[in-house]
Amino acid sequence: MPGRAARRGGSAIAARTTRHIGYELSQTIRKRIEEHFGWGKTVGHIRQTVYRGLRRVDQHFKLTMTASNIIRIARMACAVPQGTA
Question: What is the DSSP letter of 81?
Fold first, then answer.
């Protein structure tokens, strides 16, 4: 791909795609989802699992993602000003 090597910074995605509101919403939602995987890799130890077998690894992954959601919910509850809820 000659265009890819010549590109200096910025996005490699055509402006025809990025100009739509749907693309911007998709990127916002994607960031929200990716945050959980990043948290799971650093805090939840899913980058290199210590378990063997699909069942145990799956349980560990689900437990890690559940913990991530609980932390997110707790932060949302703390963000609500007193007296409004």
Answer: P
